């Protein structure tokens, strides 16, 4: 018989996942770092770039090009800024609720990135001109043949890729994996 773990210690998941508290801290650290990077780079872009003027950062591979975006990614939905404000707020709340169930490092990382991106762009929509809830998002990074974006957008894209990988691998929020469903007896090759 083993000694019980004191209640102050994080409890490991029976499926072998990491303790819930450490995953919450991982997600919080990722979200905080992503948000800080987003807001810092936006402030630097606004202070040092001229809107519409392109400046090379890594030659023609990555350029700086400051714009104010009232729409969503790829310039979609211009004029519907308030809708994106509501969506960003809803995503942020949904992620915070999901984080209570996370027992997977991959999901903690993905949700932390998603939260950083959603809150980063939500901040712009709440505090930037032309007004609360209608603020335009600061975009300033440009790749060849790609729309102008920011660090928050990068966090959201990375989160989406990670969520897709976790989904394809069958990893659930609780750290368990979906089992392959068999439909009947397997035939031997060549039968």
User: What is the 3D form?
Assistant: globular
Q: How many separate structural domains?
A: 1
The SSE order reads HEEHHEH
The number of E-state strands comes to: 3
Q: What structural class do the secondary elements suggest?
A: mainly alpha
Classify the helix fraction into a percent range.
40-55%
How far is the first residue's CA from the last residue's CA?
Answer: 51 Å
User: What's the gyration radius in Å?
Assistant: 21 Å
Structure description:
Its EC number is 3.4.23.36. This is Lipoprotein signal peptidase. Keywords: Aspartyl protease, Cell membrane, Hydrolase, Membrane, Protease, Transmembrane, Transmembrane helix. Belongs to the peptidase A8 family. It is a multi-pass membrane protein. It is a single chain. Strand 1 and strand 2 (62-69) form a beta hairpin. The chain is globular, with a radius of gyration of 21 Å. The longest helix is centred in the N-terminal third of the chain and has 29 residues, at 20-48. Helix 1 (20-48) packs parallel to helix 3 (105-127) and helix 3 (105-127) packs antiparallel against helix 4. 46% of the residues lie in helices and 10% in strands. The protein has one domain (20-168). The protein has a three-stranded antiparallel β-sheet with strand order 1-2-3. The chain is built from four helices and three strands. The protein is mostly helical. It has helices spanning 20-48, 81-98, 105-127, 151-168, and strands spanning 54-58, 62-69, 137-142.
């Amino acid at each position: 018989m083993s000694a019980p773990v004191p209640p102050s210690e994080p409890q490991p998941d029976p499926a072998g996942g990491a303790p819930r508290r450490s995953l919450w801290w991982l997600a919080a650290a990722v979200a905080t770092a992503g948000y800080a990077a987003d807001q810092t780079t936006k402030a630097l872009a606004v202070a040092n770039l001229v809107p519409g003027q392109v400046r090379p950062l890594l030659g023609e591979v990555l350029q700086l090009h400051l714009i104010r975006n009232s729409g969503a990614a790829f310039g979609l939905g211009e004029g519907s800024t308030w809708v994106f404000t509501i969506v960003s707020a809803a995503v942020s709340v949904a992620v915070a609720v999901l984080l209570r169930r996370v027992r997977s490092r991959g999901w903690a990382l993905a949700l932390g990135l998603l939260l950083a991106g959603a809150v980063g762009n939500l901040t712009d929509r709440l505090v930037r001109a032309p007004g609360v809830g209608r603020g335009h998002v600061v975009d300033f990074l440009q790749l060849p043949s790609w729309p102008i974006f920011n660090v928050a957008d990068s966090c959201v894209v990375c989160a989406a890729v990670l969520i897709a990988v976790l989904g394809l691998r069958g990893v659930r929020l609780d750290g368990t994996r979906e089992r392959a469903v068999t439909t009947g007896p397997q035939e031997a090759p060549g039968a």
